[in-house]
Amino acid sequence: MTAAIALHRAGWRVAGFERAAALPATGTALGIWPAALRALERIGVDARSVGRPQPSGALLRPDGRPLAEIDMDALTARVGEPVRLINRPTLLRLLFAALPAGTVRLDRPVTDLGALRAEYDLVVGADGVHSAVRAAAFGPRYRARPVGSVAWRGSVPLRLPSGAEVWGSGTKFGYTPQQDGRTNFYAVTRAPAGWRPADDLAELTRLFGSWAEPVPTIVAGIDPAGLLRHEIVDLRPPLPSYVAGSVVLLGDAAHAMTPDLGQGGCQAIVDAVTLADCLGTGDDIAAGLAGYERLRRRRTQRIVRMSRLAGRLGQVRRLVWLRNAALRLAIRSGPPAAG
C-alpha cells in the first residue's frame, strides 16, 4: 500500500491486488524507525499520530537479572526521533485510507504474472516472504529457507510500565507495552525445520513458565485464538537483482529477513518510497528501476545478514556467558543504520 500511495502521488495509475479478503482487525505492534516515519511523511501519511514512542527497556536473564539496558532516550538522540510502536491493523487502515477508493482490490490473489506483465507497464511484487511474483520471475532457487527457530507472537490484556527481552539458552522472550493497556509479546526457540508442537500453549508454558515475572503471567494470559506461530525464515541465496524486466520486488519479496533487528516492515516502507522517487512519472522506467536497484539492494541485503547474525546469537546453547558478553558489547555500540 505504501508503494501504491507513492506511485499514485507521482502520477501513475495504480491497481493493487491483495489476496486477503479484508484488512486485519487484530495484530501485534510494529516498531517504526525514523527513516520509515520520514518516508511515510513524504507521501502524506502521518504515522506518528497513531503511534507511541517506544519506551526504554532491558535485556534480562531468565531469572530476572539484567544483561544490559536499552536506553531509548540515547537512541532517540542518535537517530533524531523516537522509534514509534504502531499497531499493524492501525497502520494498514491508515495506508488504505490514503488511497483513492478501489485502488487496492481485496480478495484478489495473483495467479498469473504473465497476464499482469501484458496488461501493465510495471508489476511491483510486494507479496511477502513466500512471494509468488519472485518465484515466477527468478525461479525456485531464490526462496525463503528456515533458519532453525520458531516464533510465537501475540498480545495479552496486561498493562506493564516497560518492556524487556529475556535471553535464555536457545530461547528468548520479549514484551512491549502497547497504548491500549495491552502488552505485545514474542517468544522464540530453536527448532528443526517443519517442527510443530502438539499444543502451543503447553509448549510456551514448558519453555517459559518458570522464568521471572512478568513472563509467566504473560504466558498465562494468552488467548489461543490470537496466538500466531511461524517458522522463522529468510531469503537465501540473496537475489542477484530486484528487477526482472518490467517486474520489480520490494519488502519481504525482495529481502525476507529474520525479525531480530525489527527492520522488515521499515525496510519495505523505505523500498516503496524510494521506488516511486526513482521512477518519477515513468518517462524512463528502465533507468528508474536501475536507480532503485542501486540504492536498495546492497543496503537491504546487508541488513538481512546482520539480522541473521543477531538471530544466531539467540540460538546459542553453549558458552552462554560469552554470548551475553557479546550482547552487552553490541548494545553499547548501538544499532545498525536503519535507513
Task: Provide a descriptive summary of the structure in words.
The protein is globular and about 60 Å long. It is of the alpha+beta class and 339 residues long. A hairpin with a 2-residue loop joins strand 14 and strand 15. Helices cover 38% and strands 22% of the residues. The chain has one domain (2-333): FAD/NAD(P)-binding domain (3-Layer(bba) Sandwich). It has helices spanning 2-9, 34-42, 72-79, 88-97, 113-119, 132-138, 200-208, 215-220, 252-255, 264-279, 285-314, 320-333, and strands at 16-17, 29-32, 52-53, 57-60, 66-70, 84-87, 104-105, 123-125, 143-156, 163-167, 171-177, 183-190, 228-236, 243-244, 247-249. The protein has 12 helices and 15 strands. The strands form 4 sheets. The protein has a 7-stranded mixed β-sheet with strand order 5-4-10-11-12-9-13, sandwiched between helices. The longest helix is centred in the last third of the chain and has 30 residues, at 285-314.
How do you describe this structure in short?
With 339 residues, the protein is of the alpha+beta class. Helices cover 38% and strands 22% of the residues.
